[in-house]
Amino acid sequence: MVQKKGGGPKGGPRQPDMTRGGRGQRGAGLSGRGLTERVKTAHKRTASSTRWLERQLNDPYVAEAKKRGFRSRAAFKLLQLDERFHFLKPGARVVDLGAAPGGWSQVAAERVLKSGKGKMVGIDILEMEPLPGVSLLHLDFMADEAPEKLKALLEGEADVVLSDMAAPATGHQRTDHLKIVALAETAYAFAAEVLAPGGTFIAKVLQGGATGDLLKALKRDFAELRHVKPPASRKDSAEIYVVALGFRGQHRAS
Ligand SMILES: C[S@@+](CC[C@H](N)C(=O)[O-])C[C@H]1O[C@@H](n2cnc3c(N)ncnc32)[C@H](O)[C@@H]1O
């Protein structure tokens, strides 16, 4: 079913380009492609699943994630964000909202837990294989009891709250937009309660960035606010990340 066509030098996959990616992004950027894989439409495979499979087979981040033992290609987005903004410091306390299958948690745990200190807490509505040193909640973050359960696991303040949460796309643009805005807003309501002064909040939003009340609150509560599309984020995806640095801690709800 899989046909190999063309390719890099001598038909082998290209090596990761360690120089691409702009300021501070060395090591997590990849360039070029290896072999181009074409997938024939199989009897029971729909055109869209054929396209998905073809994209996976030709995605250098998918190949590199497999090579480095990351559970998702999304791991590179966090690596690239951290290489630019340096928030995953050894000993930091991190919350990962929408953690499954665990790529971001792997990256964060490797960086913050290596000093023997630090804390990693994650939550996902989907079940996730355990990760050493990471406390995981298998729960809907939008459930009433989720914030308290997360706080109980965290046992104190957080230096970083990450949200890569995304509900499955419905294909209806407005509905998908409303869902992701609601997740990002709820993520920030939680972050505002647990972040330590100086803390970092990162959340997936859609093109156009944070809007309305969320944008207002982030501008008010942080020293610096950026909208970033890391190189590993697919160009055809509308996702973008809001990166809020230097939590002022003056508007904590409780
Ligand atoms: C893009 S994936 C996260 C990938 C992850 N950052 C990684 O590197 O492996 C988005 C995740 O958000 C989770 N999610 C969406 N809505 C959620 C909710 N209400 N509560 C908890 N998790 C949620 C999904 O189940 C999914 O696993």
Question: Overview of this structure, please?
Answer:
There is one protein chain. With 254 residues, the protein is α/β, with parallel strands linked by helices. It folds into two domains: 67 residues, no CATH class; 173 residues, Vaccinia Virus protein VP39 (Rossmann fold). It has seven helices and nine strands; from the N terminus they run E-E-H-H-H-E-H-E-E-H-E-H-E-H-E-E. The strands form two sheets. The chain has a seven-stranded mixed β-sheet with strand order 5-4-3-6-7-9-8, with helices on both faces. Strands 1-2 form a two-stranded antiparallel ribbon. Strand 3, helix 4 and strand 4 form a beta-alpha-beta unit. The longest helix has 22 residues. It is globular. The N terminus is likely disordered.
Shape: globular
Given the structure, what is the number of helices? 7
Q: How many domains make up the 3D coordinates?
A: 2
Strand proportion, as a percent range, falls in 15-25%
Structural class: alpha/beta
Spans of at least 5 consecutive residues with low confidence: 1-26
CATH class of the largest domain: Alpha Beta
Binned, the helix content reads: 25-40%
Distinct bound molecules: S-adenosylmethionine
The largest sheet is: 7 strands, mixed
Say what the CATH topology of the largest domain is: Rossmann fold
Strand and helix map with partners:
Elements: E1 2-5, E2 36-39, H1 47-57, H2 60-68, H3 75-85, E3 93-97, H4 103-112, E4 119-124, E5 134-138, H5 146-154, E6 158-163, H6 173-194, E7 195-206, H7 212-221, E8 222-228, E9 239-247
Parallel strand pairs: 3-4, 3-6, 4-5, 6-7
Antiparallel strand pairs: 1-2, 7-9, 8-9
Helix pairs in contact: 3-4
The protein binds S-adenosylmethionine (SAM).
